[in-house]
């Protein structure tokens, strides 16, 4: 099973130093008014109990989020065979004097007190094997806003997954999603049911794309903020295990066909 591994403080320091040296891209996520915002940066320097981030960058047309002291920020980056996931607390804008007289200005955050790593293979999409059924329900507003009774104002859509990874999933949905209020970029709550009798996995996700194929409506979702609390990490661990299981089953089937 793909295991979400907790790292020691010594390992955290070592991997942050490597990320700075290699200038690896870093994804930053934070929540604003019930919606998740994602942007990109790089780790610039370690400064005592703080870490300095470079300039935040977003997609064209999006507004760079303003980050305030004490804001909780989710961060992740890929290094070697692992994706590293952690949460930090913002300190504020800061200028640091680097080597050779170079000054760096950016967002200062507290040194992470914990960090988890997950094999990058878990983020490779695995098709749901033939004969296995994974169902999803999804609604606007995040995982904590699941409607508890029928509500014409808050629709719950449903579908069946075609593939999944630790980063997101694709599903086949009914035509009812086309005439609703669902738009690309929306933050949604999702409930995944992998098999009858199993515990459901809840997560926040962002609606990323809509495609049509063979008279089917295909929706793509990206998990977001999944590792920023204990419940989310438990869900990530379970999903990663299923991804590894599906990969093994697919590889086994390929070997038998050969």
Describe this structure in words.
Helices cover 16% and strands 45% of the residues. By secondary structure, it is an alpha+beta fold. Strand 5 and strand 6 form a beta hairpin. The longest helix has 28 residues, at 230-257.
Which terms would index this structure?
6-stranded antiparallel barrel, single chain, 258 residues
Map the helices and strands.
Layout: E1 5-6, H1 9-22, E2 25-32, E3 35-47, E4 50-53, E5 72-79, E6 82-97, E7 103-110, E8 116-119, E9 126-127, E10 135-140, E11 156-165, E12 168-173, E13 187-193, E14 201-213, E15 216-223, H2 230-257
Overall morphology = globular
Derived structural class: alpha+beta
Uncertain spans, ≥5 residues at pLDDT below 50?
none
- N-C termini distance: 25 Å
Strand content: 35-45%
DSSP helical segment count: 2
- Order of strands in the sheet with the most strands? 2-3-4-7-6-5
Put the structure in a nutshell.
By secondary structure, the chain is α+β, with helices and mostly antiparallel strands. It contains 2 helices and 15 strands.
């Amino acid at each position: 099973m793909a295991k979400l591994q907790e790292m020691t403080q010594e390992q955290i320091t070592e991997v942050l130093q490597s990320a700075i040296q290699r200038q690896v891209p870093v994804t930053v996520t934070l929540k604003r008014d019930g919606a998740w915002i994602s942007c990109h940066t790089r780790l610039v320097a370690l400064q005592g109990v703080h870490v300095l981030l470079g300039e935040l960058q977003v997609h064209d047309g999006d507004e760079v989020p303003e980050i305030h002291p004490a804001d909780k920020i989710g961060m992740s980056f890929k290094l070697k065979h692992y994706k590293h996931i952690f949460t930090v607390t913002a300190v504020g804008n800061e200028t640091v004097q680097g080597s050779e007289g170079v000054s760096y200005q950016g967002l200062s955050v507290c040194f992470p007190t914990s960090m988890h790593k997950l094999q990058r293979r878990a983020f490779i999409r695995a098709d749901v094997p033939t004969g296995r059924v994974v169902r999803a329900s999804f609604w606007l507003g995040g995982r904590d806003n699941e409607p508890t009774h029928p509500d014409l104002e808050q629709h719950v859509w449903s579908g069946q997954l075609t593939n999944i990874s630790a980063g997101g999933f694709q599903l086949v949905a009914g035509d009812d999603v086309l005439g609703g209020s669902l738009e690309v970029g929306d933050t949604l709550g999702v409930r995944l049911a992998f098999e009858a009798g199993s515990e459901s996995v809840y997560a926040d996700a962002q609606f990323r794309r809509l495609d049509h194929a063979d008279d089917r409506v295909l929706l793509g979702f990206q998990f977001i903020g999944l590792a920023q609390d204990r419940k989310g990490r438990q869900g990530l661990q379970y999903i990663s295990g299923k991804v590894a299981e599906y990969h093994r089953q697919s590889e086994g089937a390929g070997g038998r066909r050969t």
